[in-house]
Specification:
By secondary structure, the protein is an alpha/beta fold. Helix content is 23%, strand content 23%. It starts with a helix and ends in an 8-residue tail after the last strand.
Length: 779
C-alpha cells in the first residue's frame, strides 16, 4: 500500500492527534531501488529545532511517544517501516522496550535513537531483537552508553553514530573488537564524554565551556589496530581535543579510511602538521578541519592575524602521503590568509576536486594565488573572505577557471567583478548570496551571457529590485533549474510576474523593498547613501571573566557595545539581578543597591564611566561603574516599551503607557550636574511607535524606531533638537561612528555629514517641549 493508503487506515481523530500526515512518510531509497516507508518524528522541522522533543505538541506533551507508537500498531497492519527517527523523543529504556515489541518495528533497517535517555540496557535490548540482524544504520548519540557496544552483535551494520555517548579509552578499544563485520562508518565526535543535547545547547548559547572530551594517544593507536580500525572507511572525531601525540596516532593508522572528519575538534597547528607527516591514511579522499585550529577570533572576540605556523601546517598537509588521493578538503573558519593558501597550492594536491574555505581571511591576494594554482578544482566555496571585484577578476583569469563547475562567493562585496565570472566556461552552479548586488549587477550578469549557461543561480539577500529581476527572468533559459531571489527588494507585482514566468523554478520568499536606501520624509538634509558591507563585531562571547563571578545565568551581548557582556542570573525569588562585565578592563559591575527587574536595557556610556538601566515596571537607573553605586533617576510608566541610550553625555529614556487608551509616551533627557543626574527635558507624544531607542553617530544623536517608522533627535548642552523622520521602520545600529540603516551582512546605508547636519540643526530654533506627531502619520 502507498503512504496515503496507510494514513487512511487511521481514524480521523487519531490521524490528527498523532500528526500521521507529518510523521508517516514515503521516501526514495538513497540507492534508487524504489520507495520505502518511514516514521520520522522530526519530519517537517529544521535541524536547528532538534531539541523540541518529538517535535509534536501531541506526542511530546499529551501522550508519551512510546504509548502513541504502540497504539498505532493496529492501524499499521501490513506496513513495512524501514526507517524510524525517534531523535529527542524523551525515551528511557522501558519505553524503548515497549516500542520494540510492536510488529511493525520488525522491518526497521535505519534507526535513530539520538538525544533520548537511554543507557547500556537499551543496546542490550536492541542486540536481542530480530532487527539486530538487519540494522544497517544506527544512531545512538547523546545517550549514556559507556562500554555497551563492546559485545553487541550487529552483523549488517554499516554506519554507527555515537556522538557524546561517554565511550572512554577502554570502551573505544573494545568497540574496535566488537562483532561488527560490515561496519564502515563510525562517528565518535565528543564520544569520550557524555552530555545531553540540551546541556550542550545551553553551553553553546551562554558561551560556557563545553565538556572536555579527549582520547589518549595509546587508545587511538590501539583502536587503529583493531579489526574495525583496519576496515573503517569513514571516521568522525570532531569536538575532541586532539594533541600532537593523538594526531600522530591517527596519521599512522587507518589504512582503508577515505573520510576523516575532525570538525570543531581542538587542534594546534603542530597537531595538524603531524597529520600530514604520518605513514597511514594512504586512501584518504576527504578531510574536514572546519573550526579546528588557528581560529579567526580569540576568546576575547579579537580578529586574529594569519600566522606562518598555520601556513607551515597547511604545507605539511599538502605534502602528505595522502595529498595525491585527497579529493575534498574543508578548512572553513580558519585564519588561513594568503600565505597559508599559497602554501596549500604549492603542494601535491593533484586530485583535489572540492575545496571549502569559508571565512579564512583570504582576501584578493589569496585569489591571485588560487587562480594561478594547478589545483584541478571543480567545486570551490569562498564565502566571507573579504573579496572585492578585483579578487574575482584574479580568480577567473587563472588556470582554476578552466575546471570550475560549482562556485560560491557568498558574503563578499564583489558587485564590481560579476562580469568576469563569464570566463568560467564550465560553471553550472553559482551562489552570490549577500554580495551587495543591485539591479545594475544583475543586468551585468545577464549581459555577460553567464545566466544562459547555468543550471542554478543563487542571489539570495541582495538589493535586486524589479528591474534586475525582470532582466534575470527574461534571460533564464529552460536549463536553469533554480533561480533563488529570496530576501531581495522586489515589489509584490514583480513577485507575481516572476512566479508566472518561471513557476517553481524561482524562489521569491521574504522580499523587502525597505532594504533599499531610504529617503527622509521631512528634512532634506537627512540623505542616506549606500555604503560597503561592514564586518560585524565577533559574537564569540569572552565569558571567562564573567563566569568567575557568575557560574550560571543568562548572558547577552549588544553588537553596538562589543566589549561589554550583560548577565541576568536567576535568583531564588525568580527575579533577576543586573550584572555587567567590561571585557577590556576585566571589570565586573554589580549595581548597589541591586536592580531587580524582568527584562532590562543596560547601556554603557562611551567613556565607560556609567551604565544606564531601564528596568521595566520599575525605573530608570544610572550606575557608576567605578563602585557599582546605582541611583534611581526616574520612574517608568506602566509597561516595558521603550529603551535608554547615552547622547552627548546625557541619558535619554523612552517610555510608554501601554495601558492607556492613547498609548501616550514620553522622552526624558537627564544631564549630570553637581554630582547628580537631573531631568532636563520631558517630551510627550510619539503615539504607538515605541519599539526601541538607538544611539547614532557615536552617541551624538539617536533615533526612536517604531512599528511604522522612525524619527531622529540630538542633544547638545541642554538643548534637544528634532532632526526629521522616515515613514518606515528600519533596523538601525551605530557602527564605527556612523548611523547605519539595516547594517546586516547584506549592504547598509549611512548618513553622511553628521557634524554639518548637527551644526545646522542647533544654529536655529528652540528646544521643543513636545514632538506630537499625528497618529495617522504612523499608520
Amino acid at each position: 500500500m502507498s503512504q496515503e493508503q496507510f494514513r487512511a487506515q487511521f481514524p480521523a481523530n487519531l490521524r490528527k492527534q498523532w500528526e500521521i500526515d507529518r510523521i508517516l512518510v514515503e521516501e526514495e531509497r538513497p540507492d534508487g531501488s524504489g520507495k520505502r516507508l518511514a516514521i520520522d518524528l522530526r519530519a517537517g522541522y529544521s535541524s536547528t529545532q532538534r531539541g523540541m522533543g518529538s517535535g509534536s505538541p501531541f506526542l511530546s506533551r499529551k501522550v508519551p511517544v512510546e504509548k502513541a507508537l504502540v497504539e498505532m500498531t493496529p492501524h499499521l497492519e501490513g506496513a513495512t517501516v524501514e526507517r524510524v527517527d525517534l531523535w529527542g523523543a524523551n525515551l528511557n529504556n522501558a519505553a524503548l522496550d515497549a516500542i520494540l515489541g510492536t510488529p511493525w518495528f520488525r522491518g526497521v533497517r535505519i534507526l535513530n535513537l539520538g538525544a533520548n535517555r537511554l543507557t547500556s540496557k537499551a543496546v542490550t535490548s536492541l542486540a536481542k531483537h530480530p532487527i539486530a540482524g538487519q540494522l544497517e544504520d544506527l544512531t545512538l548519540s547523546y545517550n549514556k552508553l559507556g562500554n555497551a557496544l563492546a559485545k553487541a552483535a550487529f552483523p549488517e551494520l554499516i554506519s554507527l553514530e555515537l556522538v557524546y555517548c561517554g565511550l572512554d579509552d577502554k570502551a573505544l578499544v573494545a568497540l574496535g573488537k566488537a562483532p561488527l563485520p560490515k561496519l564502515r562508518r563510525v562517528m565518535l565526535d565528543g564520544a569520550a564524554a557524555y552530555i545531553s543535547l540540551a546541556k550542550l545547547a545551553k553551553a553553546t548559547h551562554d558561551g560556557s565551556a563545553g565538556p572536555h572530551a579527549e582520547y589518549d594517544a595509546k587508545a587511538l593507536e590501539s583502536f587503529g589496530r583493531t579489526p574495525l580500525g583496519e576496515q573503517l572507511e569513514a571516521l568522525g572525531l570532531g569536538t575532541l581535543t586532539i594533541g600532537e601525540p593523538q594526531a600522530r596516532a591517527i596519521a599512522d593508522r587507518f589504512p582503508a579510511l577515505r573520510t576523516l572528519d575532525l570538525t570543531a575538534a581542538t587542534l594546534s597547528a603542530s597537531a595538524v602538521g603531524a597529520l600530514g607527516k604520518g605513514s597511514g591514511l594512504g586512501a584518504l579522499k576527504r578531510l574536514a578541519l572546519q573550526r579546528t585550529f588557528a581560529p579567526n577570533y580569540a576568546v576575547d572576540g579579537q580578529l586574529q592575524t594569519p600566522s606562518q605556523e598555520t601556513a607551515d601546517a597547511l604545507a605539511s598537509l599538502a605534502g602528505s602521503r595522502f595529498a595525491a588521493t585527497l579529493e575534498d578538503l574543508v578548512l572553513n573558519q580558519i585564519a588561513v590568509g594568503p600565505a597559508g593558501l599559497q602554501a596549500l597550492c604549492a603542494g601535491r594536491l593533484s586530485a583535489l576536486k572540492r575545496l571549502e574555505m569559508r571565512s579564512c581571511q583570504l582576501g584578493d591576494a589569496g585569489m591571485r594565488a588560487l587562480g594561478d594554482s594547478a589545483l584541478p578544482l571543480t567545486q570551490l566555496f569562498l564565502d566571507g573572505n573579504g573579496l572585492s571585484g578585483a579578487g574575482v577578476d584574479a580568480l577567473t583569469q587563472g588556470r582554476v577557471a578552466e575546471t570550475l563547475e560549482v562556485l560560491a562567493l557568498n558574503d563578499n562585496s564583489i558587485a564590481g567583478g560579476v562580469s568576469s565570472l563569464a570566463r568560467l566556461t564550465k560553471l553550472e552552479k553559482l551562489s552570490l548570496t549577500r554580495c551587495e548586488l543591485d539591479d545594475s549587477a544583475a543586468a551585468t550578469l545577464v549581459d555577460s551571457g553567464l545566466v544562459n549557461r547555468l543550471q542554478a543561480l543563487f542571489l539570495v539577500d541582495n538589493l535586486i529590485g524589479d528591474r534586475g529581476a525582470d532582466a534575470l527572468i527574461g534571460a533564464a533559459p529552460p536549463t536553469l533549474q533554480r533561480l533563488a531571489l529570496q530576501k531581495n527588494c522586489l515589489s509584490p507585482q514583480a513577485v507575481v510576474l516572476a512566479t508566472q514566468a518561471l513557476g517553481p523554478r524561482v524562489s521569491l520568499a521574504e522580499q523587502d523593498p525597505s532594504k533599499l536606501p531610504p529617503a527622509a520624509m521631512d528634512n532634506p538634509s537627512l540623505v542616506f547613501k549606500t555604503v560597503a558591507k561592514r564586518a560585524q563585531p565577533a559574537h564569540t562571547a569572552p565569558v571567562d571573566g564573567l563566569r568567575r563571578h557568575l557560574p550560571d545565568g543568562q548572558l547577552s551581548r549588544d553588537k553596538a557595545y562589543p566589549s561589554w557582556l550583560f548577565a541576568f542570573p536567576a535568583s531564588g525569588s525568580g527575579k533577576y539581578s543586573v550584572v555587567a562585565y567590561d571585557v577590556e578592563r576585566d571589570l565586573l559591575v554589580k549595581p548597589e543597591p541591586p536592580i531587580l527587574n524582568g527584562l532590562p536595557y543596560v547601556v554603557p556610556s562611551p567613556d565607560g564611566e556609567w551604565l544606564a538601566v531601564k528596568a521595566f515596571r520599575d525605573g530608570v537607573y544610572a550606575v557608576r561603574t567605578e563602585d557599582g553605586a546605582s541611583t534611581r533617576i526616574a520612574d517608568t510608566l506602566t509597561h516595558q516599551e521603550g529603551g535608554v541610550v547615552f547622547c552627548d553625555g546625557h541619558i535619554v529614556a523612552l517610555d510608554a503607557d501601554t495601558e492607556a487608551d492613547d498609548w501616550q509616551g514620553r522622552l526624558q533627557v537627564f544631564g549630570f550636574h553637581g554630582g547628580e543626574w537631573v531631568l532636563e527635558h520631558s517630551v510627550a507624544g510619539f503615539f504607538k511607535v515605541f519599539d526601541e531607542l538607538v544611539p547614532l553617530a557615536n552617541h551624538r544623536m539617536f533615533a526612536v524606531v517604531g512599528s511604522a517608522g522612525m524619527f531622529f533627535c540630538a542633544v547638545r548642552g541642554k538643548e534637544l533638537r528634532y532632526l526629521g523622520r522616515l515613514n518606515k521602520k528600519y533596523a538601525i545600529y551605530d557602527f564605527e561612528g556612523e548611523p547605519t540603516v539595516d547594517p546586516t551582512w547584506r549592504s547598509s546605508a549611512a548618513l553622511p555629514d553628521v557634524d554639518r547636519l548637527l551644526d545646522e540643526a542647533f544654529a536655529s530654533g528652540t528646544s521643543p517641549s513636545s514632538i506630537d506627531l499625528p497618529e495617522e502619520s504612523w499608520r
